[in-house]
Amino acid sequence: MARTRISISLEQDQAERIRQHAERVGMDVSAYLVHAATRQMAESDAIEEQFAEVDALIARAERAADGLPAEAAPEPAAELTEQERHEVEEALGLVHGRDRQGRRPGHAA
User: Fold this and answer.
1) For 23, left (φ over 0), alpha (ψ -120 to 50), or beta?
2) What mean pLDDT is predicted for residues 13-19?
3) Arithmetic mean of pLDDT, 56-78
4) So what's the pLDDT on residue 103?
5) How far is CA 3 from CA 6, 17, 28, 32, 41, in A?
6) Helix 12-24 crosses helix 29-50 at what angle (to 10 degrees)?
7) Helices (H), 29-81
8) Rounded mean pLDDT of the chain?
9) pTM (2 decimals)?
């Protein structure tokens, strides 16, 4: 099979790390990079194949949704009762670090 030369540019420290890794596994840099790229492509292909049905289902759902009428604006929330308002204020106070008497724990009154 005919070989094709591909030129890449990278930072000096990246090139050195690649050389070191290739040397550690007993490969030249070209073979190491081809092996790494081939492995990555195989993983990507396997993932795409595994999720092809889900991707197709999503695409069909998106096409179907394009034909639906726009969603109406939600109804405004009903007014809170006095009890609900008190509970919300109490919860927010706890979130902001105040106790039930409105004091921040650990601070003088």
Assistant:
1) alpha
2) 97
3) 81
4) 63
5) 10, 25, 16, 16, 19
6) 90
7) 29-50, 52-66
8) 86
9) 0.51
Q: How many CB atoms lie within 10 A of CB 33?
A: 15
pLDDT tops 60 at residue 107: no
What are 34's two structure tokens? 């081809």
Distance CA 100, CA 54 (A): 50
Handedness of CA 24, 26, 30, 36 (dihedral sign): negative
Residue type, 90: E
Q: Which amino acid, one-letter code, is at 54?
A: V
pLDDT at 100: 60
DSSP code at position 92: H
For 105, the token pair is 């724990």
The one-letter amino acid at 81: T
| Integer Cα distance of 50 and 55 in angstroms | 10
